[in-house]
Amino acid sequence: MKIEYKILWVEDDYEWYNAEMLLIKESLEELGFSLTSKHCTNFDEVKEEYNTNQLKNYDILFIDFRLSQSSLENGDKIIEFIRTQNNRPILTTIIFYSSDIETVREKLRENNFEGVYTSLRREFINKAEEVISLGIKRIQEVNTMRGLIMAETSNLDYLMMKIIRKHLQNTKDKNKDAYNDYEEYIRKCISDTISSNKRSFDNTEDIEKVINNTKLFTASHKAKCVNRLNRKEKFYNRYEGILKLRNTFAHVVEDVNKNGEKILKGKSQDRDIIFDENKCIDIRKKLRGFKKELEKILEDINNIQRN
């Protein structure tokens, strides 16, 4: 799972869907995730989506059992469809909801369909938040959390590279002084690091080749070069914490606290760092914040290019 939480939502009441979706969005943001919701209004749209990706792209499915435009049998069809996909099984968490919850549960029992959640329509938000929270707690294990951090920081690296390349492209012909200044700064960032490690590199190489060399042009260099374009916000000073976090998470281990709860424990400067639920939420929020910040910088640079 990334910091983007994906829901496939089957509901034909647009007003109800929009209202409930905003509540789920707020809840996920409190947990450090952004929401992407794919809205389907009928069973045929669900089948189309299944044929595209077997619904593997989604973290959870919300399904209205009795769509107002359909007969009761439509709920049975959804259950039957999910239950019979033996070759390409649907393993995603599901919540069926309805005003007539006993009928839903009876149909699930008739089809020997287990491992799903049910909810009264009026209690849907509470159930959805409970199930989502449970799923997120499960991913806050060492390997999954480490994978999330590595994946999201790689995405941030990619955004920083786009910004750097775009700035070089914008200034190359229109503002030669700005281009030369930025190119010189990039080379100096690398030279300072190489010098301190008693290594060397060919400083006469084309700048595009230089920044494409990930062994030379590291995440720290990228952050400094973005900071060069965004000095007032002191981007590098803040992003340094993410770089340290990525390094720390390479060595965290699972542990259990005095309350018997799973935690992640790492070390920094010979002191223990505990990554509990609140810390994991804070990490996701910071990653989302840097993503939005970099996207805004890139948008501003693209606007400059268009003008």
What's the layout of helices and strands?
Layout (H helix, E strand, L loop, with lengths): L3 E7 L3 H17 L3 E7 L2 H11 L6 E5 L8 H11 L9 E6 L2 H10 L6 E4 L3 H16 L2 H33 L1 H21 L10 H6 L6 H11 L5 H15 L3 E4 L5 E7 L2 E5 L1 H30 L1
Parallel strand pairs: 1-2, 1-3, 3-4, 4-5
Antiparallel strand pairs: 6-7, 7-8
Helix pairs in contact: 1-5, 6-7, 6-9, 6-10, 6-11, 7-9, 9-10
In words, what does this structure look like?
It is a single chain. With 307 residues, the chain is of the alpha/beta class. The protein folds into two domains: 136 residues, Rossmann fold (3-Layer(aba) Sandwich), CATH 3.40.50.2300; 165 residues, no CATH class. Helix content is 59%, strand content 15%. It has eleven helices and eight strands. Helix 4 links the parallel strand 4 and strand 5. The longest helix is centred in the middle third of the chain and has 33 residues. The radius of gyration is 25 Å and the shape is elongated.
Brief summary of the model shown:
By secondary structure, the chain is α/β, with parallel strands linked by helices. It has helices spanning 14-30, 43-53, 73-83, 101-110, 124-139, 142-174, 176-196, 207-212, 219-229, 235-249, 277-306; strands spanning 4-10, 34-40, 60-64, 93-98, 117-120, 253-256, 262-268, 271-275.
